[in-house]
Write a structure and sequence with these properties.
Layout lengths: L1 H13 L4 H14 L8 H10 L6 H14 L2 H13 L5 H14 L5 H18 L4 H15 L6 H10 L3 H30 L9 H26 L5 H18 L5 H34 L2 H12 L2 H20 L1 H18 L4 H15 L7 H10 L3 H24 L2 H9 L3
């Protein structure tokens, strides 16, 4: 049954059928019609998959990120990053990583981050002699890392699908995300010395202080979201609403918002949300189909018989998610595979939060995997280069992130340390 559904899904995707419709077609044609069940099951399962209060956090975080962009907040975060690390070897490359770390904390969409950070930084990198392919690769690698900085859409979707605490996921992914950022900065520093990339002048204390003051209010949002969830002041969904309200207040304070630009942001948010939620609903239909046929239980029994334990299963998870996430994009892959794989992980004694962090880190690599990663295509569009040109310079960065993903998989304390420290 699982093989039949997978083959049918791949065929539909290769025929350029949209992912959501491919999921519906796979589940409906291969099971509902085949078992002669009432067709009303199809809309019931689709609507049931979308009808979730925690899932409301997805469009709200998307909207907050878009408002941050048009409100001039992203530029202030880049200025802050330049003041802090622009004087290091490979200064502008270091700025990209730090700016993405800041911006990822106030935006949930990897593709949006690639568009915003790429639009600001790629022209500057090219002007300093990095080359368009290298500049795009650095932006892509930074955004691949940024998926681990909370809040993130993939974290929210995994938490909803797997019934895992979203606040705990946010706390669990923060430390690995910061370690990845430090690793990328060290790699860029080493490359800069070998390639002779320029470094900027060290900013004066006065300039740095002004940049810190300008960036403090946007960064305060991360503290409000994570602190509010941990203290029980609001849920993850309510935190997303707070993020939207805070972004609007900052945009009004900086006097860079207009009704026309805000309307455009609302339309973009609605389009992206409609795509994400329909995929979630369609995947719910597919996961229900698999559950009825007891596919997860069958796979779990087969894996236990084959041996390998939790280590083998984590390696299998990474090997499955990397190519599939590149084809499907992060959210559809998580929605499709989590109902199948998470019960197996629990049966093998893997903490669901730890497992979620492994999946999120893997998705960061997959969406920038040449030549088909969805977010890579966005970055290439901004950088005006082809995926083939970016493939060579981005591979060493992705290899480093893959090494960190293995660290996360095999050393659970890297993930679970902070949640335990704050009392989750």
């Amino acid at each position: 049954m699982a093989v039949l559904l997978l083959v049918a899904f791949i065929v539909l995707v290769l025929l350029s059928i949209p992912i959501g419709f491919a999921l519906v077609g796979t589940a409906a044609l291969a099971f509902v019609l085949g078992e002669e069940l009432p067709l009303v099951i199809i809309p019931q399962q689709i609507v049931g998959g979308m009808d979730s209060f925690p899932m409301l956090a997805v469009p709200l975080f998307i909207l907050a990120g878009f408002i941050m962009d048009i409100g001039g907040i992203s530029r202030r975060l880049v200025t802050l990053a330049y003041s802090l690390v622009g004087h290091l070897h490979g200064g502008l490359g270091q700025v990209v990583v730090v700016a993405e770390t800041f911006f990822a904390g106030v935006s949930g969409s990897t593709s949006a981050q690639a568009a915003v950070i790429g639009g600001i930084m790629i022209p500057q990198l090219v002007e300093k002699g990095y080359g368009r392919a290298r500049a795009t690769a650095i932006v892509g690698a930074a955004c691949a890392m940024g998926i681990m900085i909370p809040p993130g859409i993939v974290m929210v979707v995994y938490g909803v699908i797997g019934n895992v605490s979203i606040g705990k996921l946010f706390a669990a992914c923060l430390v690995p995300g910061l370690l990845m950022a430090i690793g990328l900065m060290c790699q860029i520093w080493w490359q800069a010395q070998r390639q002779g990339w320029p470094r900027g002048p060290r900013e004066t204390w006065g300039t740095t202080a002004r940049a810190v003051l300008a960036g403090a209010l946007p960064l305060l949002l991360v503290v409000i979201v994570l602190g509010g969830i941990r203290l029980g002041l609001f849920t993850a969904t309510e935190a997303a609403a707070v993020a939207v309200a805070y972004a609007l207040l900052l945009g009004a304070f900086y006097r860079e918002l207009s009704l026309r630009r805000l309307w455009g942001v609302l339309v973009r948010t609605a389009v992206l949300t409609g795509m994400v939620l329909f995929v979630v609903g369609a995947a719910k239909l597919l996961s229900w189909t698999l559950a009825v046929k007891q596919v997860p239980q069958t796979l779990a029994a087969a894996l236990v018989e084959l041996g390998g334990g939790d280590v083998g299963f984590l390696i299998l998870t990474i090997l499955v998610f990397v190519p599939l996430g590149a084809i499907l994009e992060g959210v559809p892959a998580v929605v499709m595979l989590t109902p199948i794989l998470l019960p197996i992980a629990k049966q093998l004694g893997i903490d669901p939060v730890h497992y979620g962090a492994v999946i999120v880190a893997t998705q960061g690599i997959s969406v920038f995997l040449p030549p088909v990663g969805v977010s890579l295509l966005v970055a290439c569009s901004v950088g005006q280069v082809s995926p083939a040109e970016v493939a060579r310079p981005i591979v060493p960065y992705l290899a480093l992130l893959f090494a960190f993903t293995l660290l996360i998989a095999f050393v659970p304390e890297v993930v679970l340390f902070l949640p335990r420290l704050v009392g989750y």
